[in-house]
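Justification of computing resources. Each target in the renewal requires a structure prediction run like the one illustrated here; the chain below, 240 residues long, is used simply to show the kind of job we budget for.
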Amino acid sequence: MKFLVVQHISIEHPGIFCEFMHKGGVSWDTVELDEGENIPALDSYDALLVMGGPMDVFEEDLFPWLKNEKKIIRHWVNDLHKPYLGICLGHQLLAASLDGKVCKMIEPEVGVMDVTLTKAGKVDRLMKGVSNSHSCLQWHGCEITKLPNAAEVLAKSKKCANQAIRVGNNAWGLQYHLEITENTISQWGAIPSYLEGLQITTGQSSLDPLDKAVSYKIDEFHETAHNIYKNFIEIVSDSK
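Resulting structure tokens:
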């Protein structure tokens, strides 16, 4: 298998999924859009992974490449019908690339929190073996406010109704993070917009409490991530 990974900032990478892919013999190419790299021809790739980033889906004036990225995501999902997995910004881009809508939240959602599977999520292929309520890292200030057509909500939280979605039978998005590593909090905290979200939500400028909370839960995060990864690999395999 060969995956294409689209990144919007170098420190928001597949994280623990890189370890899973390496162990499973999956190869991948990474495109860094914020550094001016272009998305290559898609023919040789079996799946598309789109990661997070500090920009918002509607900031095309500041990040002109977002327009082309949405076009490519739409082509991948609707025309090629190949497996797609988006995380955080990649989740929102899935909606924005189709006929959904993404808007700013009244207050960012930041911290270690639980998400709950919906009725559809409990029987979804990507969520097989995942606990109905599972912990994750939240760090976002926007959310999907209008779902694309043919979308199903798979998970929700108290602050955000659309924590995980499936569009059709080949595209999934997760608003939350399970891919994080031991260095994630310190690296993301260096991004001004991320630190601002933390301050708005918790009133604290220190990353230490969040880092400790993540460290306490990281094994659980990785167990859930591994379940989702295995399920996604099955989906990709069946699509070939």
